[in-house]
Amino acid sequence: MRLAAKVAPVNFDDCSPFEPAAVEKYQQALLQFENQTSNKIRALVLCHPHNPLGRCYPEQTIIEIMRLCQKYQIHLISDEIYALSTWENEIDPTLAPVKLQSLLSISPKGIIDPGLTHILWGMSKDFGANGIRIGVIVSQANAGLHNTLCATSLYTYVSGLSDYIAANILEDGAFTDQYIEMNRQRQRDSYHFVAEYLQRRGLEYEPGCNAGFFVWVNLGKKYLENRQKTQYDGPDLSQEIVDRLWNQKVFLASGNAFGSEKPGWFRIVTSHPTEYLTEALRRIELAMGN
Predict the structure, then answer these.
(1) Looking at the structure, do residues 39 and 169 belong to the same domain, yes or no?
(2) Which of 200, 205, 221, 288 has the greatest number of C-beta atoms within 10 Å?
(3) Are residues 34 and 157 in the same domain?
(4) Based on the domain organization, do 193 and 277 belong to the same domain?
(5) In CATH, what number is assigned to the domain containing residue 275?
(6) Measuring CA to CA, how many Å separate 246 from each of 65, 242, 273?
(7) Which residue, of 173, 194, 229, is where some domain finishes?
(8) Which residues form a coiled coil (predicted)?
(9) How many structural domains are present in the chain?
(10) Which of 149, 173, 197 is the last residue of a domain?
(11) Are 57 and 80 in contact (CB under 8 A)?
(12) pLDDT in tens, 133-143
């Protein structure tokens, strides 16, 4: 955004963004944007694992996206900020979760110019360390990008204190392994707790999550059901629910913030103590009119 970059959103309609068929949606958005503006698409950005769906892209889908980027000579940026926050989903049998496969683990040979592939990672999510402000770019075959980053790094140095803390954490292999495993277990348990609650209470959510610490839930459907409505006739269903949630002192990120194509969807963050989650879920139901 600082570079005044323009974002071209992709509408998937009823196609899952995780299916290889979704690549056609990317191509349609690319061609439409370039035909309607004087701008050229320069990069495709994936959030992998996905936020807010908490799912990982299958290998074949990533490969098809790589081929698309090669076809149009655009950069593929895989934001893998939740790469170490993956866990076993044992509660959603109807949709088998896909294990994370980093873009780094897929050979670009015969698929894409490796100079077009880049990976982002940082300490903020996997280590709960937003304040450290450390991120990395992994780009193994683009000398021009390396030179550009070196030229601008003078103005974006990591602070000495952040450098010291991060180095001490990452160099302690035993602690890091133990921490990651414990973090994964707790994320799994929190997700199971919330998902089981939603199932018992008849609240629709997107299954198959196995990464990150959130649940994508359809509050709009329950909100309308409680009012014996099948269609919403107001100006903004999501904002109406937001207002009711605020009245209960609950903040949830609305689908409007994520470019959701359907109203009424919200992200519940599960990384809280059980007693907090229990109270929050109770208040959410009060806001829905249960």
Answers:
(1) yes
(2) 288
(3) yes
(4) yes
(5) 3.90.1150.10
(6) 39, 6, 21
(7) 173
(8) none
(9) 2
(10) 173
(11) no
(12) 999 999 999 99
Q: Are 287 and 279 in contact (CB under 8 A)?
A: no
- Pairing mode, strands 214-218 and 135-138: unpaired
Q: What are phi and psi of 120, to 5 degrees?
A: -115, 140
Domain check: are 74 and 209 in the same one?
no
Distance separating alpha carbons of residues 288 and 282, to the nearest angstrom: 10
**217-231, pLDDT tens digit by residue?**
999 999 999 999 989
Report how far residue 198's alpha carbon sits from residue 165's, in angstroms, rounded to the nearest whole number.
39
pLDDT value at residue 4: 78
Contact by Cβ (8 Å): 245, 284: yes
pTM of this prediction? 0.94
Among candidates 2, 3, 7, 5, which has minimal Cα distance to 258?
7
Q: Please say whether the beta carbons of 78 and 118 come within 8 A.
A: yes
Do 142 and 259 lie in one domain? The reply is no
Residues for the chain: how many in total?
Answer: 290
- Its domain, for residue 159, covers 21-173
- In this predicted structure, the answer to whether residue 2 has a pLDDT above a threshold of 70 is no
Q: Which pLDDT tens digit goes with each residue over 179-211?
A: 999 999 999 999 999 999 999 999 999 999 999
